[in-house]
Amino acid sequence: MDDEQTKHDGLTLFSRVPFSRRKRKRNDIENIDGIKKKQNKGVKTVEQEIESVDMISELPESVIHHILSFIRSAKEAARMSILSKKWRDAWKSFSILTFDEQSFLKTEVDLGSDQRRQMFINSIDNSLLSHLTRNFGIYKLVFRVTPKLILYLNRWVGIAGANGLGELDIRVEKSPRHYIVPPFMNSIKTLTGLRLHGLKWSSFAALEFNNLRKLYLRRLYVDQQMIEKLASTSPLIMDLRIVECRGLKNLQISGFRKLERVDMYQCHGLRRVELQVTSLNTFWFCAKNSSRCKLNLESCTSLKRLTLENPSMTDTFLNKLLFNFPVLEKLILSRCNKLKHIEISNVKLRSLGLRSCNNLKIVDIGTVNPCSLDYKGHKMVFMLGQLCLKEANFSFGLNEKDGAADIPCRNLVIHSFLRYYCEGFTIIVWFHKNIIIHDESKDILLPPLPHLKLHVIKSSTDPKDLLDGLLTTWHPERIIVVSSPSSDVPKALHKIKGVGDPSYCGCNSSNRKCWCHFLEDAKIVNIAETEGISGQFYGLKLQNRVDQITCMRLLWEPSVHFGKSIGSDSSPNKRQ
Length: 576
What we know:
It holds the Pfam family F-box. The chain is 19% helix and 28% strand. By secondary structure, it is of the alpha/beta class. Among the domains are: 1-11 and 56-203, no CATH class; 424-576, no CATH class. It has a 19-stranded mixed beta sheet. It has a three-stranded antiparallel beta sheet with strand order 1-2-3, with no helix packed on it. Residues 1-50 and 566-576 have low confidence and may be disordered. Strand 1 and strand 2 (35-38) form a beta hairpin.
């Protein structure tokens, strides 16, 4: 909802749902004023009084605001305001205002740049003053402005803060240097979220955000003094993110009693990070390619989610680091090119991501819980130990050093992994504009191509839901099913008939169309005679197989492309 401009008259967006009437029969059971009358044969009449309790209206306004923040559009949020008077009042105080200078200037092309900018300034003034005079609070205020409008921020944020401002997001576009944040911001005591991009504070002494929960800093000058000041004056911070900032060399974060998440992304000149936060459960660290940064996370024993993108990290350091996190549930390693042989003994691990760790050869793992795997690389690593797999995603592509001669060896290792860890799973393979579904199959077809994607899921997935998900997301030209004679997937595939098939159509509104409305034709074909497919399986012995092979050709409308999801609120030719 960041880009949604919500106004106080959002209730007018609610559309009524038609209802039907019928004549009441004499013997109908009536429910009047909470009295339910019911009479059964041979049993005396019993009256039961049922008190209707509106539990949802008893929620605090802050909780209602939190619920509304997850709704994707202002129209949907406005509809929820009819639940009760309390929700309607909460909706009025739930304004999310976004002012984007560049977008506004593009709409008034007939005027000069100065006139358009003045119109933009006036529109912000009028909107904020309207909220002030109507005594409407602002849940979130977003500014996307150029340096020419920096001086106006003092007035605008001051007006917004007069009735209570929840979250503030300021981004200075196209700025070669950092502009000083005016002192107005330090006086807004109601702020719970603050996001700054391309600015800097002029004075650390005035910093005091007693209610701040989220703080995102991007392309700012940040130093250790500022972090220490925040720890002493903002005790409620739970989420701290520092992105592409300068000024930090040796960062120590301590004193935050409620801090749960810290993100550090490509901060210039950073040499050491030490976190002394026992409440921390999520840490994401991304180093610059050429930098070397040491991490000290020994005090973070409650850590559950860890993401590391550190090209200089070694096997020894990582293996020692992971030993400190007994409750770790999610681990993602990305672009850690010095890793070769790692050991993961975190028994509570539920999700493992290995992405573009180009020199990683062996992963020795021991997990107890079912674990999901997300792997991206040029070659498949060798997995040792105990891995109780829940689901898996793979993405393969050759690098510049590899050639076509390396593909068979790569596919052989993939085959070995799938046979050992994925027995009884449904295996889906993407290549070009085609999808292969292996269900209860003894053979796995991996085309000898440089780029492959695989998805491994439990075979208990309903075949109709499986096909519906694939067709909604990918819109392939062909679906190939390799299965046993007892599999239900080929049967579900035969039921796909094309445009508006009522057995598959999942449309729940007139504005949102599912894939059925974009499919022009679906036809079962012979894979051996299909141009562009049979050649991909050269040498894979398609004939005389134990499994049965079903191939369907799909013809989509010209506007629909492979791998591009169907739009939600438009026709296929015009999307809003």
